[in-house]
Amino acid sequence: MQAILGYTSEAKRLRHARAHLRHLFPYLPQQPGYNKRLRKAAGLMRSVNQILATTTSVWSDDVWGVDSTPVECGRSRETVKRSDLAGWAEYGYCASHSRFFRGLRLHLVCTLQGLPIAFALTGVKADERETLLDLLAAECELLRERPDRLSSATRTTSAVVSNANCPSMESSCCGRPARTGEREGRPGVTLFKPLRQVIELINETFKGQLDLERRRGRIPGGVMARVMQRILALTAAIWHNDATVQTVLPSLIAYDHCPLGQII
Questions:
Q1: Which residues pair with 86 in a beta bridge?
Q2: Rounded to the nearest 5°, which phi and psi values hold at 14?
Q3: Residue 262, Cα to own-chain centre: how many angstroms?
Q4: Contact between residue 213 and residue 72 where contact means Cβ atoms under 8 Å apart
Q5: Which residue pairs from 215-218 have beta carbons closer than 8 angstroms and sit at least 24 positions apart in sequence?
Q6: pTM metric for this prediction
Q7: Per-residue pLDDT for 159 more than 50?
Q8: Quick one: how far is CA 242 from the chain centroid?
Q9: Any idea of the CA torsion for 160, 164, 169, 175, to the nearest 10 degrees?
Q10: Residue 76 near residue 122, CB atoms below 8 Å
Q11: pLDDT digits (tens, 9 = 90+) for 54-95
Q12: Contact 210/69 with Cβ under 8 angstroms?
């Protein structure tokens, strides 16, 4: 709820809860205690996210979208010096946004309805193809449950999934748009323009409505927990929209402007 309602400041979130939600939360910790609980709950949020995702009707979709988006972790030189993210956060270039930035990349595998299936946080310079292979190898059960999966990837991820070390990947295929100089008659190439818009819409939901780049994490555990907050928020909204038979599953319009008490 903190992510959906736009509380990027934990202090403001706690002040709002003390003023309006005391009947729901008899005990509210101070900001340091809340921050510690949030970091420790990263694993719990991941488990709840998987439970909600697997109970939606779109979990079994036949097509996944794969893409990565920048997660900036500070611009000023002083922020870089004080940050504990050194060695993980890197300085690199984002071609889709035509800018240099310092931070991480969120690699996301999702359905065409925007439901997050799997994710990874890496440095800026990590190869997207290798990251996808590592991600699918670590989550072999995802492909084992769906032997005929088609993964549609944007930009750089190529059809190398079948060469991974996971036997479940052998019957899956991965497509991508043609690169500069490649022939245009590749199978399924006409599908990628609308698919790219879907993936960009999901990334914009994370950044525009869930404030992915304003999460204020300064240590690896804090960044991971805050990114997981936003993934869980989107999954919970899709789960609720699916259960209430809404037309657009990833829409957050009904939730991001109303009081938390009304949502509960």
A1: 89
A2: -70, -35
A3: 26
A4: yes
A5: 215/8, 216/8, 216/9, 216/10, 217/73, 218/82, 218/83, 218/84, 218/85
A6: 0.78
A7: no
A8: 19
A9: -10
A10: no
A11: 999 988 887 788 888 888 876 666 666 667 777 777 777 777
A12: no
Query: Amino acid letter at 148?
Result: D
Residue 18: both structure tokens together: 């003390």
Q: What digits encode the pLDDT tens for the residues 122-145?
A: 888 888 888 888 887 887 777 666
Structure tokens at 230: 């936003």
Contacts of 19 (CB under 8 A, 6+ apart): none
The length of the chain, given as a count of residues? 264
Tokens of 141: 């059960």
State the CB neighbour count (10 A cutoff) for residue 57.
Answer: 13
Instruction: Let me know if 43 is exposed, middle or buried by CB neighbors in 10 A (0-12, 13-18, 19+).
Output: exposed
Look at the block and give the residue holding tokens 């991508």. 176
Contacts of 113 (CB under 8 A, 6+ apart): 58, 61, 238, 249, 250
